[in-house]
Amino acid sequence: MINVTTSKQLHALQTETWVWAAVVLLVALFVAWGISTLISWEGGKDRSYIKRRWACGIVWAVAWIGFFLYNDLYVMGHIHKAPYKTQFSHTLWMTLGALTLGYVVLLVLLALVTPNSKLGSILHLKK
Question: Fewer Cβ within 10 Å of end Cβ, the chain: N or C?
Answer without folding.
Answer: C
